[in-house]
Write a structure and sequence with these properties.
This protein has about 270 residues and is an alpha+beta fold. The protein has two domains: about 10-60, no CATH class; about 75-225, Ubiquitin-like (UB roll) (Roll). Helices cover about 35% and strands about 20% of the residues. The strands form three sheets. Strands 4, 5, 6, 7, 8 and 10 form a six-stranded mixed β-sheet that branches. The protein has a two-stranded antiparallel ribbon with strand order 1-2. The longest helix has 23 residues, at about 50-75. The radius of gyration is 21 Å and the shape is globular. The two termini are about 35 Å apart. GO terms for molecular function: zinc ion binding. Belongs to the BCD1 family. This is Box C/D snoRNA protein 1.
Length: about 270
């Protein structure tokens, strides 16, 4: 058992392939690794390991994708005038704030998840926001985040050693025990080729709206919270959009697997 290292393993997780001896150890490994136990149907399989079962699995996966896409296309909400007006309003209001907001077709996960709204009375966005903490393999989804809230205040419930939730604080211990000056907030630059992933660094002291101005957002913002002191290969562009002075050819995003999982959708 890879959890307790005491008993003989009886089970193997379809998702992360970890061995466990009991239901208790299965639950512990899921909690520790944020594993849902569901087999990843899109995981890479080398040609040498490819079997008839993999072929059958791929065939069934494509059939499921086809059915999901067809059902989404037939759904009445797709053709609803109210839905189209809402999306047009969101994109138009975002454009007025110098934000290029792009929406995905119905059926994509990010389209279904997105809960962003615009309050005309307050003239304010309430964003759907995703926070990713790569050093702890953790991510959190926030809903209804006002656009005038600073990034520092948004992160307080997660990495502030005093104000953060005890459970979250323990999971993000590497962040809460590090100096706040080491925390960097990055956002991926959209509309770039996959082999040229770059990030913009955001200002924690400024509001969410100010940080999003002049940027392209697909459905909702996704922020990566990283530490300066830990080695990472995320290439951050300068304020003028130029490449950093020292940039080796071997640099690539350490989060590519996470992002591929986000965009690999039906």
């Amino acid at each position: 058992c890879e959890t307790c290292s005491k008993e003989e393993a009886k089970y193997r997780c379809p998702r992360c392939m970890k061995y466990s001896c009991s239901l208790l150890c299965v639950k512990k490994h899921k909690l520790a690794l944020s594993c849902n136990g569901v087999r990843d149907k899109t995981a890479f399989v080398s040609v040498n390991e490819f079997t008839d079962l993999n072929l059958l699995s791929d065939y069934r996966f494509l059939e499921d994708v086809g059915r999901t896409a067809d059902a989404a296309a037939r759904h009445c909400i797709v053709h609803s005038p109210a839905t189209k007006r809402l999306l047009y309003c969101l994109r138009n209001k975002a454009r007025g704030c110098n934000i290029e907001l792009k929406t995905l077709p119905v059926g994509f996960t990010k389209r279904r998840e997105n809960s962003t709204t615009f309050n005309s009375v307050e003239n304010k966005f309430y964003w759907h926001l995703k926070l990713i903490f790569p050093h702890c393999h953790a991510e959190y989804t926030l809903k209804g985040v006002p656009d005038d809230k600073t990034l520092a205040d948004i992160l307080k419930p997660y990495i502030d050693p005093v104000e953060s939730d005890p459970v979250v604080c323990q999971r993000l211990k590497i962040y809460t025990t590090s100096p706040q000056s080491d925390v960097r907030i990055l956002m991926k630059i959209e509309n770039r080729s996959r082999n040229s992933v770059r990030y913009n660094e955001l200002d924690a002291s400024r509001s969410l709206l100010d940080n999003l101005k002049g940027k392209v957002i697909i459905e909702y913002p996704t922020l990566f919270v990283v530490l300066k002191t830990l080695k990472n290969d995320m290439v951050v562009l300068g304020q003028d959009g130029s490449e950093p002075a020292e940039n080796s050819d071997s640099e690539s995003s350490s989060l590519s697997s996470v992002e591929e999982g986000e965009i690999r959708d039906s």
